[in-house]
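hi! just following up on the protien thing from before. the input was this:
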Amino acid sequence: MASPNVVRLRRVAPWWSVPSQGAIVIDGGRRLAGTLAIAGAKNAALPLMIASILSERPLVLRNLPRILDVAVLANILEGIGVSVEWDERGDTLTGRFCGRRLGSGAIDGVLVTRMRASFLVAGAMLARLGRVALPLPGGDAIGLRPVDFHLAGFRAMGATVSLDAGGVTIAAPRGLRGARIVLPSPSVGATENLMLAATLARGETAIVNAAREPEVGDLARCLVAMGAQIDGVGTDVLRITGVAALDAANHVVLADRIELGTFMCAAAITDGDLTLTGADPALLAAAGPAFAAAGIAATGTGDGVRVRRASGGLRGIDVVTQPFPGFATDLQAQAMALLCRAEGAGVITETLFESRFRHVPELQRMGANIRVVGRNAMIRGVPALHGTAVEAGDVRAGAALAIAGFSAAGTTTIAGVEHFDRGYDRFVERLARCGAAIRRVAG
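and the predicted 3d structure came back as:
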C-alpha cells in the first residue's frame, strides 16, 4: 500500500502521526519477556466501523487498534458524511461514528484503492442510499481476491451492477430484497458485505457457505446490538431478516487472534517468556494445536496465555492453511519464520492465496533453508539466521521478518514499514518494552 498523505489523515484521525516511511531495525539475540495486552483486531475493527453507515444513530467502538488502516478508513467514512470522534484516554482507542449525514460528501477514491476492506462500504451504502459508485479496492499484494462473489450477491438481492475501467456502480433504487445466496467459497469479505447489505433489505436473506471467522461473528454481534435480526452466527448459514432502521450501540472490538499468534511465535523463537493478555487462545482454532506441536508451550492465565518454548525445543511440522476453524492464512508467514529455526523439516501448504510466499526470498537472504514448489514451501530448520537488509511485501510478511530478526545474529533492517503500521498497533514500542532491541528509523 502506498503511503497516504499523513497531514490529510491527521485531520480526521489526530492520534495518527507516524509517517509511513523508513525502516524497522532489529538487533537479534534478545529474549522477549514481560506482559503484552493484545490489541483489538484489525480484521474486526474495519467492518465494524463501516457498520456505522447503516444507522443515523451513533455507534461507539471500544478497543480499536491504533493502526494506519483505521486512520485511513476513518478518513473514507468522514468523506461520505459519517461523523468521527475519538476518545484517546487510556491504552485503548475508542471511536464514535454516526451516519446521520451519510451521503453529504464523496468517496475518496485514492484511499479506497489502497485498502481492500474499504469495499465493504458498498454493501452498507447500498442498503442506506440505494446506490454506490466506487473504485475497485487495493490492499496487500498476496494474490487475486476478486469481488465477484460480492457483486453476484448484490445482483441476487435485486441490484444492478455496472463495471467500467477500475470502478463499479451498484444501484437498487427501490431497495434491496432478501435472497438465498450460496457463496462458492467461504469468503470473509463477501460474507460481511452481504450481511451489511441484508440488514436493511426487505425480507430474509440466507448466506449459505458463509465464512465462520471470529471477526465475522463480531460484526454480526455488533449489528444485532444495533437492532439487526441475524440467526446462525458462528455457523456456515447466516439468516438475516431486514429491519427498517438500525439504532445506536456500544461494542468492544474483538481481540486480534493474528497478533496473538504473531507474538507467540516471537516468544518461542527467542526462548522468551511472554504473558499475552486480553485474548482467548481458542480464537486460534487449528493454529493452537499446530503451535503446540511445533514446540510452543502455552499456559492459560485466566485473562490470556503465558507463552514459552517447550522443553523439547522447536520442531518441524506440516501446516495447511484453511478457512476458519482451519489454520489461518494470516499466520502462515509467522509460522514459517518459526520453522526456520526448528529441528527437522516441515511443509507449509498455502491453499487460499496464490502469491503469499513473497516473504520466502527475504527469509532466504537471512539464511533460511526453504524450497517452494507451487503452493508448498518446504522448510528445513537451520542452527542460526543472520541479520541483513530485507523488505516486507505485506502485513504478515513484515511480522515474519521481524520474528526471524529477533532470533538472528546481527542486525536486520526491514523496509516496507507501512505494512507494520497497517496491521500492528505500535509494534515497535510494545515489543521494545518486552526486551526486543528494535527501533524505527527514518528513510
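Residues 6-39+255-441 form a domain with the UDP-n-acetylglucosamine1-carboxyvinyl-transferase; Chain fold (CATH 3.65.10.10).
The CA atoms of residues 125 and 132 lie 6 Å apart.
cheers
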